[in-house]
Design a protein that fits this description.
The chain is mainly alpha-helical. The chain has helices at 17-20, 27-47, 52-62, 71-84, 102-110, 112-128, 130-152, 159-190; strands at 87-92, 95-100. The chain is 69% helix and 6% strand.
């Protein structure tokens, strides 16, 4: 199992719920920075040959959206695996596809304890948050992408459009805050 010390101290789950929606992960980030992520990535490649973006998506799914490594985290690990002879690379449809080697399988089996700890962490996120929070995070990220795309295309340079977007976001934030406060009040009453 993992210890509370594997996480930041601000909440039992890390830096606070608001940060869980940020890119790059949070609560599990310190745990993963200790080197366990490489074992998880190699385990994913052992399950089936994969390209880098597929690995990022699979990690997001396994952690129910609570941890998403950046490309700047995953690709150097893949390069290290190639340098160490733990993976081979094939080109498919213009993408590098990584497959595990016998040396990679041996390395992975030597670190089964770390993989077991990671499974405990994944189970914790599944139990604590479930797929619903992942779906919620996905909706928020889709909205952010929409706004970013509109900003890139110059669609929100109009002051009136920008003002309306600000109001819509402020209204949304207020509604979310009211819902959470209502739920928190109900939870306090149930105690």
């Amino acid at each position: 199992m993992f210890n509370k010390s594997d996480f930041d101290d601000e909440t039992p789950f890390g830096r606070g719920f608001g940060h869980w929606f940020g890119h790059g992960g949070l609560g599990p980030q310190r745990f993963l920075e200790r080197g366990v992520l490489k074992f998880v990535i190699l385990s994913l490649i052992k399950d089936q040959p994969r390209h880098g973006y597929d690995i990022i998506q699979e990690l997001e799914n396994k952690f129910h959206g609570m941890y998403i490594p950046s490309a700047g985290t995953v690709y150097p690990i893949l390069q290290l695996f190639e340098d160490q002879g733990y993976v081979t690379i094939d080109q498919k449809d213009g993408k590098k596809v990584y497959s595990i080697t016998k040396d990679g399988e041996k390395f992975l089996s030597e670190h089964q304890e770390e993989l077991d700890r990671m499974q405990s962490l994944r189970d914790h996120f599944k139990e604590k948050f479930g797929p619903e929070v992942h779906d919620l995070r996905s909706e928020i990220m889709q909205t952010m992408k929409l706004i970013r795309r509109a900003a890139h295309d110059g669609a929100i340079k109009d002051p009136k459009t920008l003002q309306e977007l600000r109001k819509a976001i402020a209204d949304f934030r207020q509604t979310v805050e009211e819902l959470l406060n209502k739920h928190e009040g109900k939870a306090q009453e149930d105690k």
